[in-house]
Amino acid sequence: MSTTAVPALDKTFQILDLITDSSQPLTAAHIAKELELARSSTHNILQSLLSKHVIYKDSDNRFHLGSYLLYWAGKYEQQQGVIQLFKDLIVRYPVLLQHTVTLSKMDLGEVVFLACHEAPAPLGFTFRAGVRVPAVFSATGKAMLSTLSMHTIESLYEGVFPTPLTPNGVNNFATLSDELTTIHSSRISLDDGQLRDGMYCLGTYVRNASGNAITGMAVSFLQAEYESKREEVSAVLIELAEQMEKCLGFNTSRSV
């Protein structure tokens, strides 16, 4: 029985799991028989996986796991390493520990929350790992977008700007470009109630050894405390980001 709305995807994972669990490589006929799948659909799925190097076929027409899986594994390991680094380093910054601090990554024009240090006093907004929001409205998203060209950004959204989540949300690429120009010079981004009315967030990006912004961090406030805390928190947030970059091998002589 299909466990998703995409039966072909279920079959793909069944095939990959079977190849993974098997002590020896398998032929297409064996895979189809073992999983009770039609040979035609099994063949089509195997060909798609071959074309992406997720699997490979040996001279005896038997299938093995392919090299592309190492790319996925490396990305996952890198992501998990950044989360642990965030958790290890943030405890060194008492100013930040007073607030809710989030760690996020970019994925196809959206921000995905990876980890969160919760403030002692609740904000009334829950940052759960895996929650996705449009990058153009979030502090971490804007910080990471500021390292990209506007052409690249517009391509992420196929030229269609996302619908604002609140009345405060930026609503076109021209206005977003102005915001990103400011971020580019200051390294600090601002969500001034664009994700949730009354909640302000200051963000920045973290670069890896290749100079790519692989994650973003943001500190969240209630609107009433934003002005009094903005300057101090911005400086400390950048300090934390630079410390993370140093651990990730980023060369501080680089410029964005």
CATH architecture of the largest domain: 2-Layer Sandwich
The tally of strands reads 9
The tally of domains stands at: 2
User: What is the chain-wise order of helices and strands?
Assistant: HEHHEEHHEEEHHHEEEH
Whole-angstrom Rg: 22 Å
Protein described:
Helix 2 crosses helix 3. With 256 residues, the chain is of the alpha+beta class. The chain contains 9 helices and 9 strands. It has 2 domains: 7-66, Winged helix-like DNA-binding domain superfamily/Winged helix DNA-binding domain (Arc Repressor Mutant, subunit A, Orthogonal Bundle), CATH 1.10.10.10; 74-247, GAF domain (Beta-Lactamase). The protein has helices at residues 7-21, 28-35, 39-51, 68-90, 94-97, 139-145, 150-156, 173-186, 223-247, and strands at 26-27, 55-57, 62-65, 100-107, 110-117, 132-134, 189-192, 199-207, 213-222. The strands form 2 sheets. Strands 6-5-4-9-8-7 form a 6-stranded antiparallel β-sheet. 45% of the residues lie in helices and 20% in strands. The model has no long low-confidence stretch (mean pLDDT 88).
Put the structure in a nutshell:
By secondary structure, this protein is an alpha+beta fold. It has helices at 7-21, 28-35, 39-51, 68-90, 94-97, 139-145, 150-156, 173-186, 223-247; strands at 26-27, 55-57, 62-65, 100-107, 110-117, 132-134, 189-192, 199-207, 213-222.
Question: What brief labels describe this structure?
Answer:
Beta-Lactamase, 256 residues, 6-stranded antiparallel β-sheet, 3-stranded antiparallel β-sheet, Arc Repressor Mutant, subunit A, 9 strands
